[in-house]
Amino acid sequence: MSIVVTGSAGRIGSRVARRLLDEGEAVVGFDLRPAGIDHPRYREVIGAFSDPAAARQAAEGAKAVLHLGALMSWRREDADRLWEANVTGTRMVAEAAAAAGCRRFVFASSGEVYPENVPAYQPIDEDHPLAPRTPYGLTKLLGEEIVRFLGRTGAMETVILRFSHTQDAAELLDPDSFFSGPRFFLHPKIRQQEAFGNAAAVAALEAVDDGREALVLSRNENGRPFAMHITDTRDMVEGILLALRHPAAAREVFNLGASEPVDFARALPLMAERTGLPLREVNLPGPGIHYRTANRKIRERLGFTPTWTIERMIDEAVAARSARQRS
Ligand code: NAD
């Protein structure tokens, strides 16, 4: 019997697949792209989640499915692809798993179902109202509903994990990284805000730009620094494995992420000190990002113990940046 890992070529899925193989499990990867894993206990299905034949092929002989793959996009032009990958795709993967007699189905949802950046109260726990504000968040909520429905009406033990923002530490100080570039680096942030059509944000950012590469400490319009959870992929892997195996995880919903949010007013000066890059500070229009999400339920019920603080992640990010600069 195998464990299916969808999104097996992705940031989180690839690490989960390798970890399960190390532990002696048979793993089936399912992704649009190959994961580059060469192992006698690894089989791979290359295809779209929304293709029922590919989903059936992946689920054959599965004792569990970790549905970690999804399209993450906030671009308007990706609306149809988002639906196809995350709603139709989740339905096909989950139905194939149920039909194959799979016992446990773990679904990677997201804090965007609340959404975390517009909280009704904090810390955001699993009872917080669900009111996504982006098409991506909506597809994750619909994915949850599909999974809940199959759990309610069938025999699969479903587990919904609402993931924190997640990064490989090595990505943190990479200006070309999809997430960290626009979050921490001035020029990628200007390009991102231009693409979103946020003229006022672009003007505020350009006002502190002297043309040199720089880090940027974002504050809201009242000067409050951004704060959000940034969880290391390795901690996420531990939480996903608990969701896979712990008896108390069955039919539950858990926030999964670091215990403390990252305070940008502390992290950015540390990044600047460790890289030697200049640090720009900018007040961006609007309320900004400032949230705290509770991981108490998964810590208390499943024994989740995250160990990767932002300081440890920055240590590794600095080493990765130096290695990139040398090569
Ligand atoms: P990732 O983008 O690194 O990996 C996703 C993988 O899914 C990719 O390899 C991609 O090829 C595959 N994929 C996308 N659409 C597909 C389709 N239609 N058919 C088959 N494969 C497809 O993402 P990640 O950071 O590893 O995230 C894993 C999961 O966690 C996703 O479900 C994501 O929505 C969720 N999540 C991630 C974060 C984060 O910050 N990384 C935060 C919240 C939730």
TrEMBL record:
It comes from Chelatococcus sambhunathii. This is Nucleoside-diphosphate-sugar epimerase. The lineage of its organism: Bacteria, Pseudomonadati, Pseudomonadota, Alphaproteobacteria, Hyphomicrobiales. Pfam families: Epimerase (PF01370). Residues 3-165 form the NAD-dependent epimerase/dehydratase domain. SUPFAM superfamilies: NAD(P)-binding Rossmann-fold domains.
